[in-house]
């Protein structure tokens, strides 16, 4: 007899090393007569999220098809919907302690360097009204969803990712309507405990930059790097910079790693300071370093985007010019209204010059042009952005500040993993209490997912690339997504009185991945327990 195995053995091994079940069972004990502990159930849910992340129903049916009983020692019939719900309810009141303990376990067990932590938030859309939420847990509300589903209510999640391997060492769920800016101080306070006793560098997006946040970070002695919000950049700053004075940075973006040197994007930096002031005159100013970064890739992309907007606006304005005086644009007011629509849609208000006149018959006419001086200033500013930091120049010069910030996109990639192969959105649960618990289950699955990726890369050594992941056999760095994809077709063959159970391997890359993960397919030790 064969059953689907997939990544179950890898999931079980990493969950064991993290001691997820032990941590949960200590915080959420069950009666001695219980067939399963809450920790056992949650570990199976984490494995389910990594193997077959469908809506959270019929987990027992999944467990019968997969080798859950052999790997985790749990009978599928015990994993009914009621038992799953009771486990989620049980851990909901202990989420903060569970998250902190598992994060500390990951840092200690896997030697994760948490001297640099990247923080960001995302939204998770939900189907349902959720009109009777339970107090003490994140509230499902309308907000500003990242997926632009403004018709749906949402919950939010924040994740802290280590600069070492992109490991999610902390997460927290928030109200759907909570402002991202106002969550920074609370996250910073918790991350200090996660990183203790070491100091850490907090890297975030532009929502980290507000006067209260910077004041709190300064008072706590926590260093940070974040891009300056557009509203805090003085008008004309970028257009007035001299690119010739900027210093070239020895950095190659991941997307350019395989390109010839002449085709790679370049980064240059300048540095000055910026002072942010509070809402009251007596508020002390907060002065930070400002690293002005120029990216040739960004400059090229911004120029191309502007050219597209101008061309689209040009076509629409020419069409309007010919239609002036017709039945649709018979008055100057209608022409003005249409210009307003074009200006807003194509974002050309700063450079568009128009004049509306009336001919001898009383019909409106239109003349227009783009202000070339404005376009020249905009082109001069292309590619520039600003990073704010409290790192001392002796800790990191301007170039090093940029390099440390460049780890921030890994948070976006982890959110893609969070919502992609782990399938967290949309969530189909009835109570906000269980939604908060499920987010922790998903985050624990993401932690295991990332640790599997890190383990494989570290075992590869060198440039951390391998072949066999793609049909063309090119050498690439394995991602968690590709690792799980190739392990997904593994099956387990039942043992006999004389032969132990074995893993049925159909592709060489599967054997390679199992070896990198330290799993012996000839005698899987996780079946001997």
Number of helical segments?
17
What low-confidence regions span 5 or more consecutive residues with pLDDT below 50?
424-428
Largest sheet, order of strands side by side? 4-3-2-5-6-12-9-8-7
Portion of residues in beta strands equals: 15-25%
Name the structural class: alpha+beta
Mean pLDDT: 88
Largest sheet: 9 strands, mixed
Question: What does this protein look like?
Answer:
- This protein is an alpha+beta fold and 529 residues long.
- The protein is 40% helix and 16% strand.
- The chain has 17 helices and 14 strands.
- The strands form 3 sheets. A 9-stranded mixed sheet has the order 4-3-2-5-6-12-9-8-7, sandwiched between helices. Strands 1-13-14 form a 3-stranded antiparallel sheet, with no helix packed on it. A two-stranded antiparallel sheet has the order 10-11.
- It is globular, with a radius of gyration of 28 Å.
- Mean pLDDT is 88; it is low at 424-428.
Features:
529 residues; alpha+beta; 9-stranded mixed β-sheet; 17 helices
Put the structure in a nutshell:
The chain is of the alpha+beta class and 529 residues long.
Break the fold down into its secondary structure elements and pairings.
Elements: E1 2-4, H1 8-18, H2 20-27, H3 38-51, H4 59-65, H5 68-72, H6 81-92, H7 95-110, E2 116-126, E3 153-162, E4 168-174, H8 184-195, E5 201-203, H9 211-220, E6 223-227, E7 247-248, E8 267-276, E9 286-295, H10 296-323, H11 332-346, E10 352-358, E11 364-370, H12 372-381, E12 384-389, H13 398-405, H14 409-419, H15 432-460, H16 480-487, E13 491-493, E14 502-504, H17 508-516
Parallel strand pairs: 2-5, 5-6
Antiparallel strand pairs: 1-13, 2-3, 3-4, 6-12, 7-8, 8-9, 9-12, 10-11, 13-14
């Amino acid at each position: 007899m064969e059953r689907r195995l997939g990544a179950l053995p890898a999931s079980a091994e990493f969950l064991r090393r993290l001691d997820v079940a032990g941590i949960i069972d200590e915080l959420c004990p069950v009666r001695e007569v219980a067939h399963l502990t809450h920790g056992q159930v949650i570990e199976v849910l984490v494995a389910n999220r990594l193997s077959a992340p469908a809506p959270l129903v019929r987990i027992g049916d999944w467990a019968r098809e997969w080798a859950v009983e052999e790997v985790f020692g749990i009978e599928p019939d015990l994993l009914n919907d009621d038992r799953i719900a009771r486990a989620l309810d049980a851990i909901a009141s202990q989420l903060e302690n569970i998250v902190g303990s598992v994060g500390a376990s990951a840092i200690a067990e896997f030697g994760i360097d948490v001297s640099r932590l990247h923080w960001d938030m995302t939204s998770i859309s939900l189907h349902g009204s959720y009109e009777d939420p339970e107090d003490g847990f994140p509230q499902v509300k309308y907000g500003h969803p990242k997926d632009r589903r403004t018709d749906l209510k949402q919950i939010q999640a924040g994740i802290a990712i280590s600069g070492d391997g992109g490991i999610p060492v902390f997460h927290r769920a928030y109200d759907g309507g909570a402002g991202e800016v106002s969550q920074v101080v609370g996250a910073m306070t918790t991350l200090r405990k996660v990183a203790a006793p070491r100091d850490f560098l907090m890297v975030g997006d532009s929502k980290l930059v507000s006067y209260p946040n910077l004041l709190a970070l300064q008072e706590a002695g926590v260093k940070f790097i974040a891009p300056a919000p557009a509203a805090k950049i003085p008008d004309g700053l970028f257009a007035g910079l001299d690119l010739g004075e900027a210093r070239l940075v020895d950095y190659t973006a991941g997307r350019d790693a395989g390109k010839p040197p002449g085709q790679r994007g370049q980064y240059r930096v300048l540095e000055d300071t910026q002072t942010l002031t509070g809402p009251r005159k007596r508020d002390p100013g907060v002065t930070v370093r400002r690293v002005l970064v120029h990216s040739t890739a960004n400059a090229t992309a911004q120029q191309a985007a502007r050219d597209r907007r101008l061309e689209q606006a040009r076509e629409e304005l020419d069409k309007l010019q010919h239609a002036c005086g017709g039945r649709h644009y018979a008055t100057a007011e209608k022409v003005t209204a249409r210009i307003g629509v074009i200006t807003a849609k194509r974002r050309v208000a700063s450079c568009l010059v128009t004049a509306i006149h009336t001919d001898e018959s009383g019909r409106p006419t239109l003349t227009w042009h783009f202000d070339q001086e404005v376009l020249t200033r905009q082109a001069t500013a292309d590619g520039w952005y600003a990073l704010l930091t409290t790192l001392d120049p002796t800790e990191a010069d301007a170039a090093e500040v940029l390099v440390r910030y460049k780890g921030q996109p890994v948070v976006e990639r982890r959110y893609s993993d969070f919502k992609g192969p782990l399938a967290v959105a949309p969530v189909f649960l009835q109570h906000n209490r269980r939604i908060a618990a499920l987010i922790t289950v998903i985050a624990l699955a993401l932690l295991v997912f990332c640790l599997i990726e890190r383990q494989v890369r570290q075992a590869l050594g060198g440039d951390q690339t391998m072949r066999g992941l793609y049909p063309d056999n090119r050498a690439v760095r394995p991602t968690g997504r590709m690792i799980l994809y190739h392990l997904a077709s593994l099956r387990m063959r039942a043992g006999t009185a004389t032969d132990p159970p074995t893993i049925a391997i159909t592709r060489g890359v599967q054997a390679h991945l199992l070896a990198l993960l330290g799993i012996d397919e000839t005698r899987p030790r996780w079946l001997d327990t």
